[in-house]
Amino acid sequence: MLSLRDCLDHSNLSELEVGVLADHTGLPTMLAATLAGAMLQSEGGADLFLRILREAESLAAQKLDMAQRERTHAAVERFCRIHHPDGHVT
C-alpha cells in the first residue's frame, strides 16, 4: 500500500497543494493526492489543477479568510514554480 508521502514524491506535489485540493473538494487527503497525481499525468491536467487551486484562492479571498487565502496562494505559487512555469491557464 502506498503512503501519502509515496504519492507526493511520485507526482512531485507538496502536502500544501494536495491539502488545498482536499479542502476545496471535500475529498480525503489520500484520494486528493491520487487524483492530483493522475491529473498531472493527463493532457490538460496541470491546467485543471491550477484552475482548481486558483478557484480555492479566490473563494478564500471572497470569504475574507486571509489565513486560507495565504495558504492557497502559497500552493498556487509552488505549483506554478514546479509544474507550470509559465503560470497561465490555457
Count all strands and give the number. Answer: 0
First and last CA, distance: 35 Å
Oligomeric state of the chains in view: single chain
Percent in helix: over 70%
Helix and strand composition category: mainly alpha
Q: Largest sheet at a glance?
A: none
Mean pLDDT: 88
Outline: globular
Which stretches of 5+ consecutive residues score pLDDT under 50?
none
Radius of gyration: 12 Å
Following the backbone from N to C, one meets helices and strands in this order, namely HHHHH
- Number of self-contained structural domains: 1
Tally of alpha and pi helices: 5
Strand content: under 5%
Report what the structure shows.
The chain is mainly alpha-helical. It has one domain. Helix content is 76%, strand content 0%. It contains five helices and no strands. It has helices spanning 4-11, 15-25, 29-41, 45-62, 66-83. α4 (45-62) packs antiparallel against α5. The longest helix has 18 residues, at 45-62. The protein is globular. The protein starts with a helix and ends in a 7-residue tail after the last helix. The relative contact order is 0.16. The mean pLDDT is 88.
